[in-house]
Amino acid sequence: MGILLSDVELSQTEPAERAAFRSPVPTQVVSNGEYNPLPQTADQRRVEARIKELAGAQARRLGMHRRHFLRTAAGMATAFVAMNEVFGPLFQVSRAEAAEPEAATERARQLAKQFILDDQLHFVRDDYKEDGLLSLAQYAAEHWNPDIAKDAPMTLARYKFNNFVKEVYLDSDTKIGLLSGAPFDDKAWWFLSNDQINNARKMVNGIAGTTRLMSHAVVTPKQEGWEEEVDRCIDVVKPNSWKGYTIGDPLKPATTKFPWRLDDEKVMYPFYEKIVKAGSPIFCIHKGLLPADYEKSVAGAWQYATVDDLPKAAKDWPQITFVIYHSALQPFQESPDAALARFESTGRINWVTDLAEIPQKHGVGNVYADIGTSFATACVTNPRFAAAMMGTLVKGLGFNHVLWGTDSVWYGSPQWQIEAFRRIEIPEDLQQKHGFAALGPTDGVVKSAIFGYNAAQLYKLDLHAELPGIENDRFAAIRYAEFDQPRRSNAAYGYVARRG
After folding, report:
1. 226 and 249 Cβ atoms separated by less than 8 Å
2. DSSP secondary structure letter of residue 21
3. Domains of the chain, with CATH numbers?
């Protein structure tokens, strides 16, 4: 997570943990700081009001507080009932499931063992004396809104290791994760160094007693010593894959000195040769997700966030798998309805369609799309648009080239995103008009592949050996033992637009 928003834009936001209604599914866009959070729409206000109404009635009937009800499986189902009432029947949910906690819990229990591999996870550590890492609380108070610390003290606890483990492994059905990072020109601002990411992998797997966490090594092309750091990571860190930001510094892309292109033969091709030789030829690249005024605020670097540098690199290096994070989605610059209308008219989604067309246009098969943040944002803004995005990716790349990611722990527990994808379906009219295939059942071939099997194959995981242990490790024991006692806080930890 990098703070790309200007001071003015940040002053128009509030911390989601304090300001957002704690619904099982967010009722307004939550930004991780890399793009403008849209103001709550009229439809989202209707969804929120309906969730409160339905949940209040059910809670009274069951003799519990509304907040507690919303933490249950029936509360989660209630949120999707409300979304269907407002947006149309895009989610597979019944009123009986929302009204009967036992039925909802039984469904959740049956799906709890579904294999889910989240290929984009984050947390931060705040031991300045030892690690020299970013204090989000201090940055927010000094550069964003001084009143935040007065209204609700912002601490790093919500972003730190203990909460990361709780939200991801104990409060969601995630089985394996990939811990990522973000590079800054000033190394003191890194959330986690490459060594810390590696240490976290060892720590999580040591606690669990199984392979629960994989890790990235972050690269910083053009920066002094970056090639030596790659060599060191190959020899010492041994990451599962690599991560990079073509825009350079995600904290200050407008002034960064180090943007780069995937197809830069002088800068990047020697790196590709190294990771191929090392046997870790998976390169994950942040694309898209820029502020609404990116053409002005990121005038010197926004072009590096498009995918026009991908075709040549992918064609020249078929040995490398290029995973495009966020599916290169250019954030909504207008109302969600207008963005959907443009898709309905043209059949295109800015930058996502460009990505999806690369295999057919350029004859390559080594391009993958991760849906972290993009699916989450689209889903709570206009789920029909989210369905269109999924249809576009699956049609162009193939369902076996789409990967599940959530960008947690920025948005709290990823369980709501998991439930949204389990339930969503592409409407029949979009299927017929645009040639989209249905996503199918919750545990069908397409959704199961996207949820985890695609990534497992990509990372060469032996699930026959790994899964039995994962289902009986320490994390699983805690999660299943407390399954009937919901632990989710329904809190999100990013930024939301200030309400009027």
Report:
1. no
2. -
3. 7-111 (no CATH), 117-481 (3.20.20.140)
Q: Is the pLDDT of residue 384 over 80?
A: yes
Residue 14: phi, psi to the nearest 5? -135, 160
Condensed to tens digits (0 to 9), the pLDDT of residues 249-265 reads 877 777 788 999 999 99
Quickly list DSSP for 142-211.
HHT-THHHHHS---GGGGSHHHHHIIIIISS---EEEE-----SSGGG-SS-HHHHHHHHHHHHHHHSS-
**Among candidates 498, 418, 491, 419, which has minimal Cα distance to 159?**
491
Round to whole Å and give the CA distance between 454 and 397. 12
pLDDT mean over 479-487: 79
CA distances from 330 to 113, 134, 290 (A): 34, 27, 6
Q: Are strands 282-286 and 402-403 parallel, antiparallel or unpaired?
A: unpaired
Tell me the two tokens of residue 443: 């545990």
For residues 254, 258, 260, 266, the Cα torsion angle rounded to the nearest 10 degrees is: 160
* Helices 374-381, 383-397: inter-axial angle, 10-degree rounding: 140
Count of residues in the chain = 500
CA 55, chain centre distance (Å): 27
Mean residue pLDDT across the chain: 87
